[in-house]
Amino acid sequence: MSSDVVVKKRKAKVVRSETGTPEGKRGRGEGDQDVRVYSEEVELDGRDPEKDYQQYKQTCDSLAKLMEEIQDLKAQGAKDGCAEVEEKRMQSCIHFMSLKKLNRLAHMRLKRGRDQTHEAKQKVDGLHLQLQNLLYEVMHLQKEISKCLEFKSKHEEIDLVSVQDFYQEAPQDIARPSLTRDDPHQLTLARLDWELEQRKRLAEQYRNSQSSKEKILKAIEVKKEHLNSLQPGLNAIMQASLPVQEYLSMPFEQTQRQTEIARHLPPPLYVLLVQASAYGQACEKNLSVSIVGDVDEAKALSKPPEDSQDDESDSDAEEEQEKTKRRRATTGGQLDDKRRVMLKRHPLSLRLDIKCKDGSVLQLFFYYLMNLHILTVKAKVSTTVDLTSAISAGELLNSDTLLNCLFANDQGQETPNPANRYQFDKVGITTFGDYVAEHGHPYVWVQNLGGLQFPSDTPQSARAGSCLSASHMETTMKLLRGRVQSRLALHKQFSSLEHSIVPVSSECQQLFPAKVLSRLARWTTITHQEYTELSHTQHVCEAGLARDTDLFFLAVVERGTARLHAAVVLNPRYPEVSPLFSLSLSWKGERSGRSDDNLRAIESEVNVFKAELQGPHPGHQLLTNQVARLCVCLDVYLETDGQDDSVEGPREFPREKMCLRTVRGPNRLKPFKYNHPQGFFSHR
User: Fold this and answer.
1) Would you call 674 helix, strand, or coil by DSSP?
2) Strand ordering across the sheet containing 562-570
């Protein structure tokens, strides 16, 4: 039976006693019967579900057993009307009746449980609804309390004078100390009255000041008219004084004209102009700044667009006619136009001329890319001497690489503005390095000179505008001048090295012995790829000491049958960063610094102990001094080498140098340190 079937109460049974007298109704008369009503719901309250479950299992087991017995009897040949079979059928029917009763009791228990659960759920829902109502009332009260607490009166926005000043300045009829000192409300009203009185007085003063201002403005207008009438005469006087200005080197007219043009410069170029001019006047007389470019175009850029609807309609009509005449532009042409617009320079630019003592001039041209919001620079060097004699010095004064790594790791190939990367993606520009030849290099120090600062990986102190430019101006100018001087000095040294001459200045003569037999046989320039392919330079490349921005050279030092090959890495920041030598010796086989301890010691003499070879400040003679020491160390290496006794005849390299000890230690290191003025070689 399903649980939804309504279990009907069984009909009441009348139980009588054996004597015919009802058991429950005694003493009511003979006609009354003792009636007791039986109900399964009443019986359900007194029954244990666990016992009913056990009875159910026992009844099922007994029923199954009776069925098996009936089957066995029928299998033995008993007929349906047999007494024993009928008896077992009667017992089975009794068990079926018990199962039906237990089933009814189970459904009644289930219905009672559902009814109790439903009643409890309704009670919980009612309590939850009451809780929600209470929470809503609490929230409403909290909002009202917050509104009351946050309420601000209009007088709270008025900045009233302090209470102490109020009692000192306000008259007695407004202050009323006897009433206001003990009543904050009356005190506030009195302070508001005093504020109103003061504002009336200030309004009167304002009207008087306005009238005075109008009188002064009228007087200023009269004086302006008088000054304007003087302008033609002053212009004539200035024109007449031009020869005097040129003679006295006081170009007032030129300065005035440049000041007028400077108004149309973009802010970064203007900051650079002001700071460079100030630095030139205060510290550097050989620094000159000038503005070049199309002034009329710059004025057109600075003019606001006119809001004339007629002009706009005419221009729109003309554009429509031109569009109908022109052919449809291709996608590639549109991208080229967008790139040109994005990389457009401001019509005006700055030119800085830095003059050196030897007569050479470093010319710097600064440009401002308006859409990228960055500064770029181009460099050019003008000298008074011929610089075409040295072939290996061809890259020294190249305008594209002259200013590379003026500061560490500043190669000027990528824009320092992070926003430009997203702009480039829109127009298909992969790298800004493809356009530096045309637009200049966007070095970081150039941005600093113009007062521009962009976020980077390393945190920096935040400066802005002219303060940032002024903080970098002196250091940058010194580095620029030093870069030109070092490149010119290197040019002279390369010219001598190509002719197998190792120049040594008089200040550095004491660093070397008087007689050096090894000579420089060749000095040539090589590429970065050729440098990396050499066997004795692999350790330098793996250490990251040879970069694309460096210059690479190959020197060959000879003495007799011995040939010493030196691969040289010259950093753009020479002499601040010294050249790096890697050695390979061809004599009695091939040797390098990786396989020969003495060659490694020679590399140390040239690379590590470079402080001894700097020479006079700023150390432009370092390269030739290193080459000279290389020749001296090769002499010591060859002269101190032991001669094979099986070979007859004189020594190939007779001992010319005086050494305290020819070898020392288990590595048999040779003495490469020259001691002046004693004139002998010793170990370090």
Assistant:
1) strand
2) 519-526, 551-559, 562-570, 580-586, 590-592
DSSP element (H, E) containing 213: helix 184-240
Tokens encoding 630: 């290389």
| Number of neighbouring beta carbons within 10 Å of residue 218 | 10
- Structure tokens, 613: 């070879």
Q: How far apart are CA 151 and CA 11, in angstroms?
A: 77
**pLDDT(33) > 90:** no
662 and 680 Cβ atoms separated by less than 8 Å: no
Q: Which amino acid would we find at residue 376?
A: T
pLDDT in the model for residue 331 = 64
Edge-to-edge strand list for the sheet holding 287-293:
287-293, 348-355, 361-369, 374-382
Number of residues that this document lists for the chain: 684
* Contact yes or no for 443/412 (Cβ under 8 A): yes
- Poorest-pLDDT segment among 109-118, 254-263, 280-289, 507-516: 254-263
List C-alpha distances in Å: 557 to 30, 228, 562, 566.
154, 78, 8, 8
Report the C-alpha gap between 343 and 427 in whole angstroms.
11
Task: Enter the tokens of residue 597.
Answer: 């301890």
Q: Answer whether 0.85 is exceeded by the pTM.
A: no
Q: Which range, of 10-19, 99-108, 196-205, 622-631, averages the lowest pLDDT?
A: 10-19
Taking every pair of C-alpha atoms in the chain, what is the biggest distance, in angstroms? 169
How is residue 341 written in tokens? 């617009």
The C-alpha atoms of residue 123 and residue 568 are separated, in whole angstroms, by 95
What is the rounded CA–CA span in Å between residue 226 and residue 232?
Answer: 12
User: What angle (nearest 5°) sits at the alpha carbon of residue 435, between those of residues 429 and 440?
Assistant: 140
Q: Is 480:354 a contact under the CB 8 Å cutoff?
A: yes
Instruction: Summarize the confidence of residues 291-312 as an average pLDDT.
Output: 70
Contact 385, 482 (CB under 8 A): no
Structure confidence by residue, pLDDT tens digits, 157-189: 788 888 888 888 888 888 888 888 888 888 888
Q: Which of 307-311, 390-394, 446-450, 507-511 has the highest mean pLDDT?
A: 446-450
Most confident among 34-38, 75-79, 446-450, 646-650 (mean pLDDT): 446-450
Contact status, residue 21 vs residue 34, Cβ threshold 8 Å: yes
Give which of 466, 407, 393 is closest to 441, Cα–Cα. Answer: 407
Sequence spans of domains, the chain: 1-36, 40-132, 153-240, 262-302+335-484, 500-682
